[in-house]
Amino acid sequence: MTDKQTAKLALREHAANDAPADMRAAFAADPDRARTHSARLDDMLLDWSKCRVNGQTLDLLTGLAQACRLETRRDAMFAGEAINTTENRAVLHTALRNRSDAPVPVDGHDVMADVRAVLAAMADFCHGVRDGTLTGATGAAFTDVVNIGIGGSDLGPAMAVRALAPYHDGPRCHFVSNVDAADIADTLAGLDPARTLFVVASKTFTTIETMTNAATARAWLVDKLGEAAVGAHFCAVSTALDKVTEFGIGAERTFGFWDWVGGRYSLWGAIGLPIMMAVGPADFGRFLDGGHTMDIHFRSAPMRENLPVMAGLIGYWHRAICGYPSRAIIPYDERLARLPAYLQQLDMESNGKGVRLDGSPVAGVSGPIVWGEPGTNGQHAFFQLLHQGTDVVPVEFLVAANGHEPDLAHHHQLLLANCLAQSEALMKGRTLAEATEKLIARGMDEEEANALAPHKVFSGNRPSTTLVYDRLDPFTLGRIIALYEHRVFVEAQLFGINAFDQWGVELGKELATALLPVVETGEGAGERDGSTAALVAHVRALRKD
Ligand code: F6P
């Protein structure tokens, strides 16, 4: 057996035999548990004490991380080695937020000058738009920016722009991603073309949804302001600069990035243009500072004190050892409403793989299903299942100690109380005896209480982690996103997979391209499988164009 197999076997045996079975008992036996099962980076605290782990679990998990050469692999990533082996690429989104003087080599070339040049060009452009010196074709200042992109060219900026609402002092930002005409139609409906700037964001500049939406936006603008207005109202973000030129967007309005930045890791550079537009270059810089601070921590803190490492090890424990198929991300922070969607791409596109780095099949499992919604809303929707359903779903709570509305501080106290109460309830549960006693204490007769009590039992022992931070400012948002990026990396090393490719998105794209003429004309429907052919026929019978 290899070291990895031995370490995994030891973890499984530990889970079956001597991991804490009862969390109430674990807290009663160890009053110091919250301290020994948490890690801090300044104000940011990650608590995993409500998970069914103990010191031995952590020793075994860190032992597995060592057997998987986690630190060596981490250093290889930061050193610019081509760890994305199926695409033969370095993985250096961290260079986009490198705020130190240290060079970052890719194939022997320090990329930092290029990174800084793009950031400076973005800042110049944003200053011009924000202060009104850079105007639309009619001379009117821009009031609205529409980002047209999808996946990594949409989710990151959309999530961050919403998260940083208290810092907005620029134009309003809108996001169009879906090829469904409803998306662009509803967005354009309220906009003044003379005051609207479009950002076409696509790493490849070939993605059908983005190119279709960009063409529709262009036609809308031409219809209102004429062909000559296009240059003043469009800019682009891409690695495919030649394709941007073909589209008709000038080089001075094109912000580049590089193939060593994965789409879902790209909001730190040019893809972050809408974020910079909304909050300004200074706050965008603070966002980068936050990411860089988490990088330094990830590279230097010992495993047990390292937030991304511990988040990854606990995530792996839940997924691979305990066998829980999903994880819920529940920010008690309305402005992080898009964080679960953002993390779905980050995590599931990275770690939803069936083969290992060497091409052999994944023996057990790989990444979990990621989902979630902000609290407290989720409490009134799906928390019933989290507390009493037959599946155990580890929950990841996020909450700020302080909000941005000092005049409404009582809202924030309620928010905090709810967040903490939910993790407590998941952990503690309520026994049958407690449930019965409570009903009788309320005046119910014994027979009735005995009948109702089973419905009021909570098994408890349901794991959750909590990430607490001072306030959701640009710096902290940067730390949170970098934490999750590195956590995904840590889990990938334990699964033994490449977190940086995404071949699983290809087949659907190919089939959509092949099906377009079938949907348009009906020809070739008979060559599809029976279900698809029948669906095409039904759709075509209903269509009115
Ligand atoms: O659907 C997969 C994907 O390739 C993502 O990885 C990527 O973020 C998204 O499509 C958009 O790609 P692009 O930025 O090239 O338009």
From TrEMBL:
Pathway: Carbohydrate biosynthesis; gluconeogenesis; Carbohydrate degradation; glycolysis; D-glyceraldehyde 3-phosphate and glycerone phosphate from D-glucose: step 2/4. One of its GO terms (molecular function) is glucose-6-phosphate isomerase activity. It is an enzyme of class 5 (isomerase). CDD domains: SIS_PGI_1, SIS_PGI_2. It holds the Pfam family PGI. One of its GO terms (biological process) is glycolytic process. Its main location: cytoplasm. Its EC number is 5.3.1.9. The active site is at residues 349, 380, 509. It catalyses: alpha-D-glucose 6-phosphate = beta-D-fructose 6-phosphate. Keywords: Cytoplasm, Gluconeogenesis, Glycolysis, Isomerase. One of its GO terms (cellular component) is cytosol. It is found in: Cytoplasm. Catalyzes the reversible isomerization of glucose-6-phosphate to fructose-6-phosphate. Belongs to the GPI family. HAMAP family: G6P_isomerase (MF_00473). This is Glucose-6-phosphate isomerase. It comes from Roseitalea porphyridii.
